[in-house]
Amino acid sequence: MARDWRRIHGSLFHRPSGANRGQSGDHDAALLLLEAAQAGIERTKERWFAAEILRLQGEVLLQLGEDKTGDSRDRLLDALATARAQGARFWELRAALSLVRADCPAPGARERLALIYSGFTEGLTLPDLQAAQTLATTNEGLRAAN
Questions:
Q1: Three-state SS across 10-69?
Q2: How many CB atoms neighbour CB 27 within 10 A?
């Protein structure tokens, strides 16, 4: 039973490991863990956190430098589209935040973030929602994020 649970949900646990590796500078290991998580998603069809895995991959790719900026932006746009298709508004917000924070954000990224943020009426004290408000409404927030 535990083995089946791990086989089905194991990719969920690659998400924090991949994010932590990326933040610590071990980008190759982070990408491997996040790719394993994505493979697990495809294998099990458990897609509820697919957008977050794509977003994290985009974040790690962005840290690799200018030559990966296009790949990063593509991954972040995939995360945004996946979240939107699933109706996962919080994952959509996080993907939009990452796009705005990217060195070369997609056209209309800030406006899209403002639109997504405007749909939230609760939880406005959560850090992601506070960052979204700042980034969506001020030039100061955009400069501080970069």
A1: HHHHHHHHHHHHHHCCCHHHHHHHHHHHHHHHHHHCCCCCHHHHHHHHHHHHHHCCHHHH
A2: 18
Using DSSP, state whether 109 is helix, strand or coil: helix
Calpha distance 83→70 (Å, rounded): 20
Q: How far apart are the first and last CA of the chain?
A: 46
The answer, as to whether pTM is greater than 0.70, is: yes
The tens digit of pLDDT for each residue in 61-98 reads 998 888 888 899 999 999 999 999 999 999 999 999 99
Kindly list the structural domains of the chain, giving each domain's residue range(s) and its CATH number in brackets, ordered by start: 2-145 (1.25.40)
Distance CA 56, CA 62 (A): 10
From CA 90, how far away is CA 12, in angstroms rounded?
17
Are 69 and 104 in contact by the 8 Å Cβ rule? The answer is yes
Tokens 């405007």 — which residue? Answer: 118
Would you put residue 104 in left (φ > 0), alpha (ψ -120 to 50) or beta? beta
